[in-house]
């Protein structure tokens, strides 16, 4: 099936989770579509195939709606899957930054398109190690240009991962750090209320790992199942 026809099918509303497979070793795998019809470019990094864009679906892959929460107090009190758009403005931030999902979404195995999943901590570490586990790996993941605040240390996007400074939503519901910071959930956590994440900052070229409450709102990148 030609690529233009795959795009047309996805845009017409037909659920097409993986537009086509790609053989291991191909560094230009085909795009993938979510249940809402959003289409994502993908990239092969080492032995892994990643989305090259942040997830922006509003539904799980079984069609279930994810709760959209705009009010700070509701976000703080919530302990179930939920998402929001930065500053509650989808027209400005849905594309290209994607949604900010709480950790309860990240832990749900149905958030990514079929055949894809939220990476665990080991997946993120493998990604970092594919660049030699160097102190400049974050720069290789970040896009260049004005979307990141100056000095955006080390950014060259040589990986084609295209990390954008999507900001975050704190557990109490406030938004912060657009153009300064981005964080990506993993599915690995020390307990039922927290998950690990990988983050990037404008201030350095590192890829940093940490643990936060699932009530925070971070970005999600999906990785293809092996």
- Uncertain stretches: 1-26
Topology as a string of helices (H) and strands (E): HEEEEEHEHEHEHHEEEEEEE
How much of the sequence lies in strands comes to: 15-25%
Globally, the shape reads: globular
What does the main sheet amount to? 4 strands, mixed
- The rounded distance between the terminal residues' Cα atoms is 23 Å
Strand order of the largest sheet: 5-6-7-14
Query: Number of helical segments?
Result: 6
Our count of domains comes out at: 1
Average pLDDT across residues? 90
CA radius of gyration is: 17 Å
The percent of residues in helical segments reads 10-25%
Topology, number of strands? 15
Structural class, from secondary structure content? Answer: alpha+beta
Features:
four-stranded mixed β-sheet; three-stranded antiparallel β-sheet; 6 helices; globular
Short description:
Helices cover 18% and strands 22% of the residues.
How would you describe this structure to a colleague?
The structure is a single chain. 18% of the residues lie in helices and 22% in strands. The chain is α+β, with helices and mostly antiparallel strands. The chain has one domain. The chain has a 4-stranded mixed beta sheet. The chain has a 3-stranded antiparallel beta sheet with strand order 11-12-13, with no helix packed on it. A hairpin with a 5-residue loop joins strand 1 and strand 2. The radius of gyration is 17 Å and the shape is globular. The two termini are 23 Å apart.
């Amino acid at each position: 099936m030609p690529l233009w026809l795959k795009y047309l099918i996805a845009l017409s509303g037909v659920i097409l989770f993986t537009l086509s497979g790609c053989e291991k070793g191909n560094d230009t795998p085909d795009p993938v579509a979510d249940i809402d019809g959003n289409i994502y470019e993908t990239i092969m990094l080492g032995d892994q195939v990643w989305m090259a864009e942040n997830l922006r679906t509003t539904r799980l892959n079984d069609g279930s709606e994810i709760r959209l929460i705009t009010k700070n107090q509701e976000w703080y009190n919530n302990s179930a899957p939920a998402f929001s758009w930065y500053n509650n403005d989808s027209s400005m931030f849905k594309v290209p930054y994607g949604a900010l999902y709480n950790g309860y979404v990240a832990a749900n195995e149905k958030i990514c398109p079929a055949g894809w999943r939220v990476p665990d901590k080991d997946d993120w570490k493998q990604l970092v190690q594919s660049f030699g586990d160097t102190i400049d790996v974050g720069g290789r993941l970040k896009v260049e240009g004005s979307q990141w605040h100056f000095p955006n240390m080390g950014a060259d996007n040589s990986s084609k991962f295209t990390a954008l400074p999507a900001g975050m939503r704190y557990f109490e519901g406030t938004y912060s750090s657009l153009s300064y910071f981005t964080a990506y959930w993993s599915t690995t956590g020390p307990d039922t209320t927290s998950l690990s994440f990988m983050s990037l900052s404008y201030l350095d070229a590192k890829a940093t790992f940490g643990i936060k409450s699932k009530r925070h709102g971070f970005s999600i990148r999906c990785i293809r199942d092996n």
